[in-house]
Amino acid sequence: MPEKKVLVINTTPIISLIAATGSLEMLPLLYRRVLVPVEVCREIEAGGADGFAITEFERMTWLDKQSQPTPIPLLLKNSLDAGEAAVIQLALQQGITLVAIDETVGRRFARLSGLTITGSIGILLRAKQLGYPLSMAEAIGRMRQRGIWLGDTVVEFALREAGE
Question: Does the CA dihedral 82-86-89-91 come out positive or negative?
């Protein structure tokens, strides 16, 4: 089994994984520790239009939910939303190399900061490869039903990599 890394995760991957599988239970199987910046906690707890994922997120007591805001440099603060900026900055402050961000601009900033990036689809693929019982096609279908946008290229890649 591959070495379990530490992950700092953003809002969209949390919501997408809950949409895809109904929980975040795969994360402790894949990562030694999962940090959630307070800014991300606030975004999830705000609940969007219908409060989706709040209950599931709150049940995940094993998540390392940070209690203090992350001091964010102006460049990140002015370029990204609070969650993405906090994920990148927290990872850099703690010496963590892996972040989960789905949005293109956030991924670009993370890459420019020397971080390794994964996202919702990457986490689902890794879980499937390690034996987590998962239909990628069904997971993608549930994500799309919740209004999570996935490009056709990403979907084709995910299904191909999952062997579906």
Answer: negative
Q: 85: domain range?
A: 5-162
- Which of 94, 90, 98 is CA-nearest to residue 116? 98
d(CA 35, CA 27): 11
Name the helix (H) or strand (E) containing 98: strand 98-100
Tens-digit pLDDT profile for residues 21-78 = 999 999 999 999 999 999 999 999 987 668 889 989 999 999 999 999 999 999 999 9
119 CB neighbour count, 10 Å cutoff = 22
CATH code for the domain of 123: 3.40.50.1010
| 6 strand-pairing partners | 33
Angle between helices 11-21 and 136-145 (to 10 degrees): 110
Split into its structural domains, the chain has a count of: 1
Full strand arrangement of the beta sheet holding 64-65: 64-65, 31-36, 5-9, 98-100, 116-118
Please, where are the H alpha helices in the chain?
A: 11-21, 27-30, 38-46, 54-59, 74-79, 82-94, 104-112, 120-129, 136-145, 152-162
